[in-house]
Specification:
290 residues; mainly alpha; single chain; two-stranded antiparallel sheet; 45% helix; 6% strand; 6 strands; 12 helices
Length: 290
């Protein structure tokens, strides 16, 4: 069988396991937390947690009926794929139709072609995907390369659902700005232990991350909660949009940029700053009193 091999049904190949020792492993974290962002998971129109879960559930159930043969899997791909339609936020970024729900309880996103996935009997079918098996086994996202391990550990232990985790874990500029603001308020670096000891810090930190999904100042031209995660300059983030030139630059300009913000007035900008200030202060207070 071309492009197909049988390996032990673990999280991946030897190369992957070796990299897990050098990095914080972010692809499959727990029974409910994982990431499929690099496979175009969020690159769909009308993105929401509910709509994406519904799509993945339907796809997962359909794939259970697919014969595990090259012809069977390729037929599934052709029925479900086509080329990425232009109405998706990033037309040239592929959305893999082999993303589904995996694990014993099927509560996290993952690759339906992975050797550990249900029904594959240890056979690695990822070579039949659009990017091929090598990309799956060797690619590590910007978050792993750009963020300190303590930040990644905090994310892994505080976020409890794959949808939010995958949306934020590749946002290294946004996360860096978030953590720096928290540490400025706290007067010290924060650690995973701070959040492990304080449920209040964990809950407020989740509220902060949810801004990625519900930011009220998002520009109408924004692609929405999703973002283009690759550092190749193809889809660049635009500067903060200001309706009037006298609306000042903010101390949170990086955050506002990464959130695709637009402000009609200085009052709107100050309201946005207040939202962030409140959350940063609450998190800092919680970690300093745990």
């Amino acid at each position: 069988m071309n492009n197909v091999k049988k390996i032990s049904p673990d999280l991946g190949s030897t190369t992957e396991n070796e990299k897990q020792e050098a990095f914080e492993y972010l692809c499959q974290v727990s029974e409910t937390v994982s990431c499929g962002a690099c496979c175009g998971l969020y690159n769909i129109s009308g993105l929401s947690k509910q709509s994406l879960e519904k799509l993945l559930r339907r796809r997962t159930e359909a794939f259970k009926q697919v014969p595990r043969t090259i012809d069977g899997i390729d037929e599934f791909r052709m029925q479900n794929e086509g080329w990425t339609p232009p109405e998706r936020p990033f037309p040239d970024f592929h959305h893999c139709v082999f993303l589904g729900l995996v694990g014993e309880s099927e509560q996290r996103v993952g690759c339906l072609l992975h050797p550990a996935a249900s029904g594959n009997n240890g056979i690695d079918w990822r070579g039949l995907s659009y990017y091929g098996g090598m990309a799956c086994r060797t690619y590590f996202c910007p978050g792993n390369k750009q963020l300190p391990q303590r930040y990644l550990k905090i994310l892994k232990q505080t976020v409890n659902h794959w949808f939010l985790f995958g949306l934020v874990v590749t946002e290294f500029r946004l996360l860096t700005a978030f953590f720096e603001a928290i540490e400025n308020k706290a007067g010290r670096p924060v650690t995973p232990d701070d959040f492990r000891k304080s449920s209040e810090a964990t809950n407020r930190f989740r509220d902060l991350l949810e801004i990625k999904t519900n930011w009220p100042f998002r520009s109408v031209s924004s692609p929405g909660p999703c973002h283009y995660m690759f550092e190749n300059g193809q889809y660049k983030r635009q500067p903060v949009q200001r309706k009037h030139p006298d609306i000042p630059v903010s101390a949170y300009e990086t955050i506002f940029t990464e959130l695709d913000s637009a402000f009609d007035s200085e009052q709107d900008l100050r309201m946005a700053e207040a939202v962030l200030d409140k959350l940063f202060s609450e998190i800092a207070e919680a970690v300093n009193h745990c």
